[in-house]
Every structure is written in C-alpha cells, then in structure tokens.
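fwd from M.: "can u put these together and see what the complex looks like"

so here's what she sent:
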Amino acid sequence: MRADQLETPVAVVDLDRLNANIERLQAYLNQHRIGNRPHIKTHKIPAIAHMQLNAGAIGITVQKIAEAEVMADAGIRDMFLPYNILGQAKLERLMHLTRRVSLSVSADSQTTVAGLAAAARREGACLPVLVEFDTGTGRCGVQTPQEAADLALYIVRQDNLRFTGVMAYPSNENTDAFVAALREILAHHGVAIEVVSGGGSPNMWNAHAYKEVTEHRAGTYVYGDRSLVNVGALKQDEVSFHVLATVVSRPTADRAILDAGSKTLTSDKSRGAEGYGLILEYPDAMINNLSEEHGWVDLSACRRKPEIGERVTILVNHCCVVNNMFNEVVGLRRGEVEVVWPVAARGLLT
Amino acid sequence: MRADQLETPVAVVDLDRLNANIERLQAYLNQHRIGNRPHIKTHKIPAIAHMQLNAGAIGITVQKIAEAEVMADAGIRDMFLPYNILGQAKLERLMHLTRRVSLSVSADSQTTVAGLAAAARREGACLPVLVEFDTGTGRCGVQTPQEAADLALYIVRQDNLRFTGVMAYPSNENTDAFVAALREILAHHGVAIEVVSGGGSPNMWNAHAYKEVTEHRAGTYVYGDRSLVNVGALKQDEVSFHVLATVVSRPTADRAILDAGSKTLTSDKSRGAEGYGLILEYPDAMINNLSEEHGWVDLSACRRKPEIGERVTILVNHCCVVNNMFNEVVGLRRGEVEVVWPVAARGLLT
C-alpha cells in the first residue's frame, strides 16, 4: 500500500530517515566517547528502541514505570528512569522490574530516597540512584552542589541503594561547573561520581562541550519536528515523522479546514514559529486554530490553494506529544507502507 | 478500593455527579421540547453514552467514523456524524455503518455531497444529510443562506440522499435569522427543513432562546471542566471529572512538581483563566508550565504548601482532550472505585 492510500489523519515515519537519524547521533556520541541513552518517550515503540540499541546505545531512558514495563516485555534490559518514584504501589512495581532488567532511577529529595531505600530493603535488592540537579531549567532537581552532596551522602548511607552519579535536563553551560563543585565536596567523603547523565535533542550536537557528561539522553532526534528544525538541530528534509491530513472543507477563499485538530496535532506550540504545524505543500498557509478534530488554516498568504479532498503533509510542532495521540504509527519506505507499529506504551501514564 | 489508593496520574469520574449532569440537561431540554443528541467525543465511553440515552437522549453525536463504529458495536443505534466525510475508504466504512445504525451526516460542499451520493448509490442506501452552516465561528459551514439553499437543493437532486435539515456549531444569536432566511428560499422550491441541529455546552442553558433549533448537541456537560465553570454553565461542585496527581518534587520553597504534564493535562488553556488546571486543594497555586510528564506549580501565592508525596485533585482546563489522554477512566461513588471504563474510542482518529 502507498502512503496516499492511508486514511487520514495518520502518523507516518520514513524508515530511511529514522534510521539515518539514529545512526547520525550514535556516530557523533561514539566519536566523543559519550554513552548514548536515548529517551523512548518520543516514540514509545519497542521496535524503534531496539533500532537505537542495535546502533550502539548503552541502554534506554524511560519516563514512566509503565513505559519501562512495556520495554522490558519487549526484551530491553538496561534502563534509566529519571523520575522521583513515590508511593507503595509504584515502588513495588519498580522493584519487580529490577528482577528482570538493569534499572537505575533518579531522586531529588530525601523523601524519594527514603521510599526507594525501604522498597529496595524489602526486595533485598541494591538499586542504583542518581541525584537530579537543576541547571536553571526550573523543573525538578536539587538547587546547589551542597544540596546534591547532602543527598548523595544520604543515598550512600542507605544499605540497599547505590549512589552512581547525577543527572540533569537538559545539559547546558552550568552543568560542568555544578558537577565539578559537587565532585570536590564528595571527594572529601571518598565518594565518586561514576555517571553524569545529560540530555536533550535541541542541544545534542553540543553534547561534547559539556566535559563532565558521560552519557546523553536525547528523545526527539529519532523523528524530528518543527521545533528541532527551528533551532537548527535537524534539517527539514531529515525529519522522519509527519502527520498526513486531508482538506475537508474550504468554506471561504482564504480558509481551509483539515481533519487534524487538537486530538491529533495537540495544542503544543513551537518556539519561534506560529501556528500548530507547518503544511509542507503550502508553507505560506497558517494552521492558526484547532478544535478537537478540525485544523483551521488561513490561506490568505498562499498563491496556490488546496482543494477539498486534497491531502497534505504536516511537519508537527512537537513530535513526542503528537506521536502520543496515535494508537499506531505507519512506517514508510520510499512512500510504501512497510510496517505498522502500535504505540505500545502510549496512554500508560503511571 | 478508595480513590486515594489509585496510582496517579489518574482520571476519575464521580458517578453521582455524572448522573446528575446527564439528568439536569435532559430535564431542561425536555422542558423546552428540544431533542437531546449528546456528543460522545467528550467521554468516548459506551457506558456513558448509554446513560445519556437511558435518560432520554434521542441519539448521540459522533465526530469520527471510528467513534461511530465503537458506539455501534456497543449497541447504539441512532447517530449523527457532523463531519465532511471524504475519500473512498471512509465512504465505504460510512455505508457499512448505515447497515446497522440509523446514521445522518453533514456536508458543507458539493464535493462532499457528490462523494456521499456516489457511495450511497453504490450501497443502494438513502443517506440523510444536513447542511452545515457557519454562524460566525469561522470553522466549517456554508457562509450564507443562499449557499445553504444551493447545497440543500443539490442534495435534494441526488437520488440516494435525503436533505433533512441544517446544523451549526455552536448555536448562537445568528442561528435563527440564518435558518429563517434559508427556510424562505427553500419554500419556493417546496423543500422543508426538518431538523435544525445546534450545539455547545457553554451555551446549553440558553438553547431554548434559539427558536429554530430542534435538537441540541452538547458534549462537555457530562463531565464539566474549568472552562465550563468559568463561563458559569456548571458550578465547580457539579464537575464530575478530575485528574488526581501526586507532588513528586519540591525543589524550592515556592515550587512543586506534579506527576501530570502535557501528556496528561494537555497544553489546552482555559479562556479567562491562567495555567493548565486548578488544584482544588491549593486554589492559590498556579500550574504555570508543563513538560510531558511534569506539571510545574508556582506556590508563591499559597500560604499552606503541599509536601512531597501529597496527592492533589486537578480541575482540568478542557475535559474532552484530557479524557482522551487516558486509556481508562475510573468511576467513583462517594470516593470508592465502582467501575473502570476503557476509553473505548480514544486514539481512533479516522
């Protein structure tokens, strides 16, 4: 079947470009001796995770226990879960996972560490834990090297935990200084930092600039999207992921309506770009509004305009959340359907 | 099991409130002799659609053929699909549906009508079609009563289609004038308007003000959300749908991080309200940013602040898109889990 026979809206992945994106980042990280630990939250598809591992990744990154469970079922054996896991039920699932995969987690508080320690003790396991630090993002993470040291030493004091290092998202210009300061404090206590896990796709080609970073977690790079193109991390013709949609209405001379709305494209915007995606065939068109199953397109800047029934290709603003809207992603090779992948870990929010 | 034992993030529905919302709108529409044709896009759950029908709805509204297929499989027999259906594959599925359910569709162009007519001819069916008109929303729909009349007459000329009326979203102050003008034009051709289908939840208690409207399509009213509360269509303590989340990090005195991000709450904003949802236990807190699995909360305006591990209840901005992020919704009665409903039609985008 050809791509133009697929019913829309549909998420398609060009398999050659997908493979090229996987190989390109792997080669770069290999060259700089940085471990590649791709984040599977972007695709949530075991087959793509296996492609990443086969290319040379040292393991994967997952953001939810449920994602880890799906990937474990698919035979993947090395995972990092950079998330504060709290609560009896989740801690129990985490421990069950440690029976079948090599798993490390992160923490940014004594509360999280205490829970992990108690669960690991009950399990009789030894769980590797990284301290998350904040390099200015303003999300999770301890705020200072001293706080990081205090938490690291607290982990060291737990019998069933092993302090293995630190992590941040994304890697940035503050990363090295933070880690160096932390290393100095910890050295007084005879504690070493084995792993410094950095991350991000927008900054991926700069990963070698952060000398302390030992492994890199990138997600979006496998697909690419408008945001990644806009920051120059990927060229538009390297993007492997698109949404195909159909023009279902042309109510006025300057308006088209697509069969892709917020339940397909999501309401995520792209920094530095207007609208809810770029229509490749009509780059002057603007997807200026979404309702749940309709994309509203302003054609006033277009010389040529699409007709009712015409199919278009959308470069999405943010591929991770758009991939997450689909139950399946269709893999294409030179425009021919080669594989249909269930988005196995989507909707598994715990 | 009690709600506080559920792993987070989780979507919960208070069954008593759900039932009350269904009964309240039904009673109002009954009182004004307006047909109730609720839109199931909000919940995508057959059991809730059956509750709506049992309360007195004349049928349901669906937005996708796949939604119609799921509801048909669940035994629902009367549906309106207010969408321009285009393309061979979709038209064939539409016709297959007409074999087992009473189904009407909308159209706003001759292209759509011609496709419907050809498909109905091949099927040997007679498909009811409503003309969609635009009352100022700027989405789909013909622009003038004359255009509506031309399209209605085009439908009338098709052997296998039946012109049954018109539809708009939402019903508003332009609806009556548009329909009256159209009726006058069509009267000259001996064509009657049987059905005038209006819609919307924000305006639902005003449905009786639009005298031409014979049936009303509301979706959000079963659950309610921050948007519906903000426009005064539902009280906050009538909202049946919430997301339960957990505080997973407190990196600074004024910041909390929740385990609900854009893959849970979506990036939809609520008109007239800031942030990505309202935390009921901390109404002065502001969910001011989302990443995929983290909600960033500014606590600077809060006197009392949540601790790590504490669970919170989120009134979401837009329940339709949030419900759509979950594979399951948990039905609670007085805080006790009574039922777990698969969101049967979610992710079915065609």
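replying to her w this: Residues 7 and 245 of chain A are 9 Å apart (CA to CA).
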